[in-house]
Amino acid sequence: MSLFQENFDFVRPTSLDQLNDLVKEYQEKGLEFAFSAGGTDVIPKLKSQPSQLDKFISLNGLQDLNNVKIQGKRISIGALTTLSDLASHELVREHLPTLATAAHKVASPQIRNRATIGGNIMVDNRCIYINQSSINRECHDPCFKADGNVCHLVKSARRGDEILCQARFVSDTAPVLLLLNAKITIIGPNGARTISLGDLYLKDGIDSRSLQVGEVITTIEIEIPEDTSLHYEKLAIRNALDFPSLGVAVRITGNNLSIALTGLNTLPGVFHANSSNYDTFNDMVSAISTQAMDFAKTYQQDFFPRGYRKSMIPVFIQRGVTSILKDRQ
Question: Nearest CA to 257 among 227, 288, 231?
């Protein structure tokens, strides 16, 4: 039996003005709506977790948001650019090769042909207790994210806690974009605004993004780095399909070190270390590895054992450092 909801209207605006007009109209009428870009996240969710949607808004008609271009010393990436196009684009491979690598590591070729960069940085947080069909979820009480009153990972959690849901952050591209100090432009009924990508992410696994209802990401802007000393590595059961059980991006700027993590908490972790605060470079690597391990919340919601995932953090950091230093020789 299909659980896919069939009683909502499909709309496909062709301009941002038309999109905003539709959103304002639906909000004034009290209608429930959802956005879809590539649809690789939202369509499976609608199939497995029926909702009371009135309108389904496809963003694929906004062709101006499907591009990569240089503007001065910055690269602008439209939010509807597919991960396949991003991974193979000449400008990205030349100026942001690690971003191309991270995009190529997402899911499978078929999914990358549909999935967008905007969708990947907005991908819903994952947990084994919520990311299954409503029929399968009948074997346990509904969790907070399913409008229940329990977190199956943290039994002591209660409504009102600062972090109610521990569903984990799983974007592959976000760690690299965070180390590149990416900014995103957002449009909505109240106009446009630009924020740092890091300001998009919130602590709770349910309300995990700072977008307001009706807002969408239009572009991602990155200042072209003077060097490309970045590395991204991903731990997953399979090379294709799987979300990262652990993802580590490493950047060395001069003698300073920055890392960004995915798959280990409700939001990405970003850490910076200044070489002037340490006696040796290895001391700096060790210290930032300790910070990263302290950040990790490795609840048992993954294929790999909790201890293994945590122990691989300093390994991936060291691999990134070694790879970058080797490329510099």
Answer: 288
For residues 30 and 58, the answer to whether their CB atoms sit within 8 Å is no
Phi/psi for 233 (5° steps) reads -135, 145
**Would you say 165 and 148 are in contact if contact means Cβ atoms under 8 Å apart?**
no
* Selection from 218, 201, 271, 249 nearest residue 102 by Cα: 249
What is the fold of 1-58?
A: 3.30.43
Both tokens of 189, joined, read 């009924």
3-state SS, residue 128: coil
Integer angstrom CA distances of residue 54 from 3, 34, 145, 216, 228: 16, 9, 21, 18, 46
CA neighbours closer than 13 Å in the CB half-sphere of residue 88: 7
List the beta strands (DSSP E) in the chain.
9-11, 33-36, 55-58, 68-71, 74-78, 183-188, 191-196, 216-223, 230-235, 246-253, 256-262, 269-273
State the distance between the two ends of the chain, measured CA to CA, in whole angstroms.
59
Going by C-beta distance under 8 Å and a sequence separation of 6 or more, which residues neighbour residue 187?
16, 19, 20, 215, 216, 218
Question: For tokens 């070489």, what's the residue?
Answer: 275
Q: What is the pLDDT along the chain (329 residues), one digit of tens a residue?
A: 344 455 789 999 999 999 999 999 999 999 999 999 999 998 888 877 667 899 999 999 999 999 999 999 999 999 999 999 999 999 999 999 999 999 999 999 999 999 999 999 999 999 988 888 777 878 889 999 988 999 999 999 999 898 999 999 999 999 999 999 999 999 999 999 999 999 999 999 999 999 999 999 999 999 999 887 999 999 999 988 899 999 999 999 999 999 999 999 999 999 999 999 999 999 999 999 999 999 999 888 888 999 999 999 999 999 999 999 999 88
β-strand pairing of 256-262 with 269-273: antiparallel
Domain-wise residue ranges, the chain: 1-58, 65-123+167-328
| CATH code for residues 65-123+167-328 | 3.30.465.10
